[in-house]
TrEMBL record:
KW Ribosomal protein (keyword) present: no
Record-stated family: Belongs to the adenylyl cyclase class-4/guanylyl cyclase family.
GO BP, sorted A to Z: intracellular signal transduction; receptor guanylyl cyclase signaling pathway
GO CC terms of this entry: plasma membrane
Protein name (database record): Guanylate cyclase domain-containing protein
Compartment(s) where it occurs, according to its Swiss-Prot or TrEMBL record: Membrane
Length: 235
């Protein structure tokens, strides 16, 4: 009898542990990806036209130098918790956070029309910028987005991680790094997708003070880019 009780208790603990592990996996990668991993399947997918978002906190280095490590962690945790809620709200996928950088993708792993994916990411980005404004901290955020093909897959086994790769990812990162604080910069292709979507975005071509268009982008040359300013209420 005692042996049966011990075995039942161990089995219950094992099941609870498995459930908690699954719940944790669902928080860090898409549900259907977790199911494929649990079935021992390799996860590698190609997506023809998704939209990738990058952000970076402007002034973070100075702030970190003037704050304690605990204060820095508390700040990032507060911001990223709000961003995570926006990920759920807009139906995009959080891919990574590296220090003060945050990355999401729309249209992968859950496939949808490219224009819909771009709209979801843009709405997420605009809300994230608004959250930065309301945060009350002496910091702001640069944000960039680009659209195109990517390859997605899960790396590692002990600590599996859902990642995306491709030139689109690099371009989105460049849109962020060449942008301006408090603004969302997009490529021409992303602009076109937003205009095709059912939402109404206010978009303005980036023009220099001398009237010249286009910016120099590393590895790309001169690119025409656009500021995504806002989206109409109710869209």
């Amino acid at each position: 009898m005692a042996g049966s009780v011990v075995i039942s208790t161990l089995l219950l603990l094992l099941l609870l542990s498995h459930k908690q592990y699954s719940k944790l996996l669902y928080r860090i990668m898409p549900r259907h990806v977790v199911h494929r991993l649990q079935n021992g399947q390799q996860v590698v997918e190609v997506f023809d036209d998704v939209t990738v978002f990058f952000s970076d906190i402007v002034g973070f280095t100075d702030l970190a130098g003037q704050s304690s490590p605990l204060e820095v962690v508390a700040l990032l945790n507060d911001l990223y918790t709000k961003f995570d809620n926006l990920v759920d709200k807009h139906g995009v996928c959080k891919v990574d956070t590296i220090g003060d950088a945050y990355m999401v993708v729309g249209g992968a792993p859950d496939r949808c029309e490219p224009s819909e994916a771009a709209a979801k990411v843009a709405k997420f980005a605009l809300d994230a910028l608004e959250e930065m404004t309301r945060s009350g901290h002496a910091i702001s955020m640069r944000a960039g987005m680009a659209s195109g093909p990517v390859v997605a897959g899960v790396l590692g086994t002990s600590v599996p991680k859902y990642s995306i790769f491709g030139d689109t990812v690099n371009t989105a990162s460049r849109m962020e790094s060449t942008g301006k604080a408090g603004l969302l910069q997009a490529t021409e292709h992303t602009r076109d997708l937003l205009l095709e979507s059912s939402s109404r975005f206010e978009i303005e071509e980036r023009v220099h003070a001398n009237g010249q268009k286009g910016i120099m982008v590393k590895g790309k040359g001169i690119m025409n880019t656009f500021w995504v300013r806002s989206v109409s209420e109710g869209s």
